[in-house]
Automatic annotation (TrEMBL):
Keyword list, A-Z: Coiled coil
Name this protein carries in UniProt: DUF4091 domain-containing protein
Top-level taxon in the UniProt lineage: Bacteria
One Pfam family, short name: Glyco_hydro_123_N_2
Coiled-coil region(s): 992-1026
Domain BIG2: 302-378
SUPFAM superfamilies: Invasin/intimin cell-adhesion fragments
Amino acid sequence: MFVTIFPTQPINILAKAENGVIVDDTQTDQALDHYFTFSDATDSTGKKGWAADTKEAINGSHEAKTQHWVWTQDQEEAKKHTYTFTFKGTGVKLYGVKNDNQNSFQLDNGNVETLTINGSANQITTLYEKQDLEYGTHTVSVTLPFGTGLQVSYAEVFGAKEGSTVKETILPNKTEEKYNAFQYHAYEGASWTVGEKEAYIDLGASDDKAEQCYYEIPFVGNKITITATKAPVHGIVKFTVDGEHERTVDLYAKNRHDELVYVVDGLSEDTHTLKAVTQKTKTGSKIVNQVVKAEVYHAPYVLKDIVIDASMTLIQGSTKQIKATSVPEYAPMDDLSFSSDHADIVSVDENGKLSALKEGSATIRVACGDVVKTMEVKVLPQTKQIAGTIVDENLQYTQDTYEKVSTMGQMEETISAWRNDSAVSEIAIIAKDSSLEDVSIEVSDFTNAYGTIDASNVDATFVKSVDAYTGMPGWGYAPNRYPVGNRAESSDVLYTKDAVDIPFAGVQPIWVNVNIPKDTTAGVYTGTIKVSCKDTKEVLTFTYHVNVQNVVLPDATEFENGFDIELWQYPYSSAEYYGVEPFSKKHFEILESIMEKYKSIGGHAITTTINEDAWDRQTYSKNEVHYPSMVKWTKEKDGSFTYDFTDFDKWVQFNKDLGIGDKIVIYSIAPWHNSFTYWENGKLVKERFTVGSKRYNEVWTDFFTAMVKHLDEKGWFDDAYVGIDERGLSETALNLLDTIKNKDGKTLKTAGAMDNLTGGEHPKLARRIDDLNVGDTVVQNNPEVFQQLLKDRNALGLKTTLYSCTGHIPGNFSLSAPAENYWSILFAYKNGTTGFLRWAYDAWVEDPLRDTSHSSFEAGDCFLIFPDEKNVANPTAKSSIRLEKMAQGVRDVNKLMLMTEEFPQLQADVDALLNSFDTRYESKGYYLTDSGKQEIAKDMNTVHDGIAKITEKYLALKGTGVNRDKLLQAIENAKPLLSEKDLYTVESFTAFEAAYQEAEKALRDANSTQENLDKAANALVNTQKA
């Protein structure tokens, strides 16, 4: 085992404790030395057996939170429920939570002890303990003499000897370790989807290269088992261990279920490798390899030695992680401890992180059980140094890029933009072998001979990093269960323009955005960004040349007529984050900066809800209802419904007042939970429905009749779309909506998302939706099918866009490269669509400014904008680099559309540029590899630079290029004569002065024609003569 940030622990059902061996209540395999058994009695309610679940409210470890329990008020039934714990050792403890009951315990058929279970709610307490037994196999039987229930969380076994069998569960997302971990392989262009609950690779209906897609598990032990899901779309897999024990397993089944599919026992207690190869043949419709978990059985791993550096030299203020390697390398170091004999010089935390506090020396002790090693650490004083460089804004600059950034030294850059446009760049500052305080930014005006871009138009913002879970927990209902460990740094938040401190050897990015006013005269403008700190006199000066091209980019509010962007909004999320009443005055003050930013990038569609938890608790919340309905349904005593549109109206009107909301997406006739949600007698009711049933038709007809009437009354009907995403799109829903007409005989428009264009109703439905969003992975996998659909929809005058969401690569997540967000926009345009959609804009997790990890999806998947700190008086939303790169992409696509619409002959240049980048890039797991990120960054730079080149061709065709040199020279020649007033008559000097002023005005006027410039130059030359 290799320890980096902190000693890693395998996810064991049986783990070594400080004094004993922990055995979780989920361990029921009687082939092991330690296991639980639970009775299968049926209680008075007809429920059979025990409940087994995880209760997050219980304080303690994972083993504490898992539990088995039963509950019944019938004491006779209660007595039927029993459990036993069998173990091999010399002592035992059973742990659970207080339940106000008495439990009866019997050891090895001895005397029965009845004990009262005391303690505090949700606190682990000792249920039973016995020590100093003769070594051997013992069994504790537990019954309920009277009361209402039994509960147990885990056991601890003492005196378990070597030779005991350990069963280790390996989940699919355990990939970092060398042994007892998954390794996924696929040919270029194919990739595995890996989560906590499953991993799979979908190769479609046929694939001759299927056998190049497989997973391996190097393991140490004597037995291994594989559990997989059998399903209608799963394929055939060939398993081997060490090239032997071959078995081919068909994962096809009519009904989806998990099954133990492969077992190899009786192996030598040694290193082995399991291999699971996808087969080209199939029984079902697809070639899919899938796995749920592996279980490795082995003797307890015994640590023989620890390898660490004998000595280390640090600079004051620095930190360093002790790297400890176990011998053998698969042996765990669960109780690894660290200490320092001079903690005032070098401190060390429980995870082995050293902190050099002052000059001197210290001895660090590293111990695990009986194995002890020492390290001598010397601390040298630091010298304050600041350094920096302009970097490629298509990549992230986190602390692990320090060495790379320190070797760079680009202090000057030329960037291009249109008028009414923005040019972006990024700077990375490093505290070179030191820490720095009060690092600040100073921005100059950007000037040339023709005019000035005021410094107020230049935003230079320090970027804040957040933590992000490196995997994906996986689909499923887990509303507040967040993954632990496996975090990486994401440099993403445009946080502050105020001075910041940089920690020792830290990397601090600065995001640069030069906003070009609409009336700026074309030309190259030069300005500087200076970075300094209080610790050193050195000032870093970065020089920028902004090439302003003589074309005016349409305002973002006009992008809806070209290429637009739609990001689903979640306003209740910001209300919960800041602790304010939804849609109160304070909430709208908070929402203003969020939605103004959305408007500024071309967003105009707004998201509304008509169901409680329409996304079935996928969004984060501490509330029982994670995301409320903006329309409150109430079931009256007579069974009828009334509908309160108060929140809906407030939200829509707020956006209308901001100048957006001309598209109102109403979500949804197909909520994820397939239920009507309404309030009855003060309680929320979820009534499951069957699509197409009489009840379904009656209730939805009643609601949408009321909704249509309300929209008519507000004057919003023509702006409204009923939103339906991938799971709920059906002809039944569309047919029902077509029966409901407004006062003018019109029906509601629809906006739908699709991630499948083949089979079933999909082809037909895809041609009925008014505003269709297609997953960009569909286009990657079925480009011909998509292009035919696009052709058909264009002929019908229907809008088509692409969308990206969880599982898509390239992606838009916290750990994605910034270039991937620009790619998403350009890829959508490359494939002929007129927009891009994404969930979600602002569905924040609990503390997004610290950690963007989500309970089900990739970190950052559900928001592109960040909140302010909770305690500020006037919160202002903070943009992200991801959002800024999307915005840049939207601007650039609208440039291409404008130029090709005016001059179709430029289409060949545009096509060549769009064909210069790839549909896929090298990836592993959920993200692009480092190589893939470098490649996509290079390609996106090529595209952005190419747009500037096409712009020059456009300007040549348009003939808008003007030469201001003649006028500039005339002004320079005339300027000294302004102080020679005595050489002129009053009338001639007045004329000269007026001509000079007109000349300067013409020079700086972005819209001056060549004729105007020459006329002003000639007038100035003629009037300056004394």
